[in-house]
Amino acid sequence: APGRSRSTCTHMGVFSPGDHVWISLDALVETESAHFASASPFALGVVHELCTRSQVDTIRVHASGAYGEVTVSVPIGALAHANPMLQDECDDFASLSHLNEPALLHLAVLRYAHRHIYTRAGPVLVAFNPFSPMRELYSQATLEAYVRATALAEQLTTGAEGTEDEQGTAGASSASAGAMPAHVYEVAGSAYHSLRARQRSQSIIINGESGAGKTETAKIILRFLTHVSAGESGGAAGARLASHAHDSAPALEAFGNCKTLRNHNSSRFGKLMRLHFDGLGSLVCGSVQRYLLEKSR
Fold it and tell me: Using CB atoms within 10 A of its CB, is residue 224 exposed (0-12), middle (13-18) or buried (19+)?
């Protein structure tokens, strides 16, 4: 049509009647957004009609509102493709057909509602704080299962490559993705077995906002690494080192943690933990370096 840009017409071809889409409620006028009584900033709908007669391309979308079915006109930029329902069981964001904000948020909310607090994002693990004990998730049997699974995955990865993998733990993590549910033990096991197989240092970076569970995640990883390394050494030295590493946590928290509005045991410092292993995979020593301590508190 005269006066319409080529890019706008191209965007119209992205959607077709019958497509399942996510609607950004922020883009709707107040009278239309009132139909959706939801805490989520997105609503799921189905494309009904493409409207190209106005200056701004819009799409008529059928959606389920708070008071029944509703049809709204949505600007093209406020729509995003929704994934098939069968992908609601997915445990890896990277395997979704459509990667966009509402699709990621939808899967994260679904998994959290079913108490699946870990979700993969390729070689990265996304963890959500459950704010309640989940002891069965970190049982001794679960730990042992991931020790075996990550060791097997590393063997398969290195055997298929025949050479060193520059991606480090990413290769092992992806190899074990289909065998076991997403878990922080998978990250720890991949790092440990990559260390042994490749004889190269490995790093695990834990980041997130206050109260996300970074300190507890570090403790869980430390427990895994000290357990598997003590098993490899077969002696009391590894067990003593593991005990010292775990016993240091309360002392550090006593001097470096404080109560905040969001977290009653918030770490007010950064921590770099180094664990040193010998060629057989036995833990021989470790150190903790603190930095950015908030002395004003």
Answer: buried
7 annotated as belonging to a binding site for a ligand: no
Distance in angstroms (rounded) separating the CA atoms of residues 57 and 10 = 11
Is residue 213 part of an annotated ligand binding site? yes
Is residue 154 annotated as involved in ligand binding?
Answer: no
CA 120 from chain centre, in angstroms, equals: 5
> Binding site annotation covers 212?
yes
Task: Answer left, alpha or beta for residue 168, where phi above 0 means left and psi between -120 and 50 means alpha.
Answer: left
Closest CA to 193 of 247, 239, 156, 243: 156
Fold equal for 6-81 and 135-291: no
Q: Can you tell me which residue has the tokens 């609601």?
A: 88
According to the annotation, is 208 in a ligand binding site?
yes
Q: Where are the domains of the chain?
A: 6-81, 85-116, 135-291
Coil, helix or strand for 204? coil
The arrangement of secondary structure in 135-291, i.e. its CATH architecture, is 3-Layer(aba) Sandwich (3.40)
| pLDDT at residue number 5 | 40
The pLDDT of residue 290 is 84
CA distances from 113 to 107, 172, 294 (A): 10, 28, 35
pLDDT at 219 over 80: yes
188 annotated among ligand-binding-site residues: no
Provide CATH code, domain 6-81.
2.30.30
